[in-house]
């Protein structure tokens, strides 16, 4: 649809149909360097200024109507419900995390106690066998 050969360029084109468009970029003039591309899309409609002016006039008329106030109240109510759901979910997660921490604390306590018992028993057995190693009968001489 359009092509630019300069290092800095602007491509503008009109479309007749909505849909997907492709943008193809080439680096054939600079084989040994990189290319930095900044893309900014702007969409302009014919008669957009007229539509904007009519919308502003309509806003002036609708600002004081009961339906606009009702729509605002409904919007606020929906946002409050969403916040309530979010906080409710957060409270539920906090409770689940609390019980998980208590469970982990209980597990760590029992595991630490078991390891302490194993260490004490291992120390006792070491002393017992070490004492037995150097223990001699009274009938045998020590040297």
How would you describe this protein?
59% of the residues lie in helices and 0% in strands. With 143 residues, the protein is an all-alpha fold. The longest helix has 69 residues, at 66-134. The chain is elongated, with a radius of gyration of 40 Å. The relative contact order is 0.03.
Query: What would the principal axes of the Cα set say about the shape?
Result: elongated
How much strand?
A: under 5%
| Average pLDDT rating | 79
The number of helical segments is 2
Distance linking N and C termini: 107 Å
Number of strands: 0
- The helix/strand class is mainly alpha
Q: Biggest sheet, in brief?
A: none
Q: What is the alpha-carbon Rg in Å?
A: 40 Å
Low-confidence stretches: none
Order of helices and strands: HH
Write the layout of secondary structure elements.
Elements: H1 48-62, H2 66-134
Structure keywords:
143 residues, mainly alpha
Produce a short descriptive summary.
By secondary structure, the protein is mainly α. Helices cover 59% and strands 0% of the residues.
């Amino acid at each position: 649809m359009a092509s630019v050969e300069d290092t800095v360029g602007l491509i503008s084109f009109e479309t007749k149909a909505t849909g997907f468009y492709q943008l193809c970029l080439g680096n054939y003039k600079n084989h040994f360097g990189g290319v930095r591309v900044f893309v900014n899309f702007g969409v302009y409609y014919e008669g957009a200024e007229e539509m904007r002016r009519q919308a502003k006039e309509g806003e002036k008329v609708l600002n004081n109507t009961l339906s606009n106030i009702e729509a605002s109240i409904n919007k606020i109510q929906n946002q409050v419900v969403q916040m309530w759901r979010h906080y409710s979910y957060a409270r539920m997660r906090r409770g689940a995390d609390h019980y998980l921490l208590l469970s982990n604390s209980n597990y760590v306590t029992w595991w630490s106690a078991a390891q302490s018992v194993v260490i004490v028993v291992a120390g006792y057995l070491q002393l017992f066998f070490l004492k037995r190693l150097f223990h001699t009968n009274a009938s045998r001489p020590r040297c």
